[in-house]
Each structure stands twice: as structure tokens, then as C-alpha cells.
Amino acid sequence: MEYVKAFLVGGAICAVVQVVMDNTKLMPGRIMVLLVVIGSILGAFGIYQPFSEWAGAGATVPLLGFGNSLWKGVLKSMGEDGFLGVFKGGFTASAVGISGALIFGYLGSIIFKPKMKS
Predict the structure, then answer these.
(1) Which parts of the chain span the membrane according to its record (predicted)?
(2) DSSP state, residue 1
(3) Confidence of residue 87 (pLDDT cuts 50, 70, 90)
(4) Which end of the chain has less neighbouring CB within 10 Å, N or C?
């Protein structure tokens, strides 16, 4: 049942984003930034953690989860390093995920030989 719940929640998030893309003039990059910011705001208000525990991967995999990870990293680092943590925390919290995306993207480009669109 957890898989079904994660699928439905993740699908609902994607459906809402698709409706926003279809009915506004916002560019996809701005919508992505909006999702990260919403995830951070929900984390700051303490809403995201119970939601992600209930929804599982359906809530943590989309960009909302990335925003929440950044928020938790900044909050932790601010407790340890003070104001400097505002700048440091997001990088340390998300470094592994970003590094993994870059490494696997690079390996995928070596294996599959991508070409430019013509």
C-alpha cells in the first residue's frame, strides 16, 4: 500500500505542476525553483516532515524534497556555525545528491553518446 500512496502523491504533485505549466506563462526553470522554495517553506513551518512520513517517496523524490533537504541543512549548519551556516548548510546537505546526479549524468553521456537536436 505504501507504493500506491507514494505513486498517487508523487503523481498528484506532478499533475499540479503540469497544470501550472499549461495555464501560466511561467518557464519550467521558474517552476522548478518555485517547487524548491515551497519545499523549504513547508520544512520551515514543520509541515513537510509529517507529510513526507505519510507519503513516503512520493513526497521526498520530487523537488519539494530537495528544498526541504536544503532547509534542514541550513538549519543544522546555522546551529553549528551561526550566520555562516546560511551559506554553508545547503551545500553540505545536498552535496551527495548533486554529485550523484552529475556523476551518473556524465556516465550516461559516455555510454549513450547524446547528440545535439537539429
Answers:
(1) 31-47, 54-71, 91-112
(2) -
(3) confident
(4) C
Name the grid cell of 21.
505549466
Q: Where are the domains of the chain?
A: 2-112
Provide Rg for the chain, Cα atoms: 17
pLDDT digits (tens, 9 = 90+) for 6-65: 999 999 999 999 999 999 999 888 999 999 999 999 999 999 999 989 988 888 877 888
Question: Model's pTM, two decimal places?
Answer: 0.76
| Separation of CA 98 from chain center | 11
Place of cell 509541515: 47
CA distance 90 to 101: 16
Phi and psi (nearest 5°) for 7?
-65, -45
- Give the amino acid at 65: G
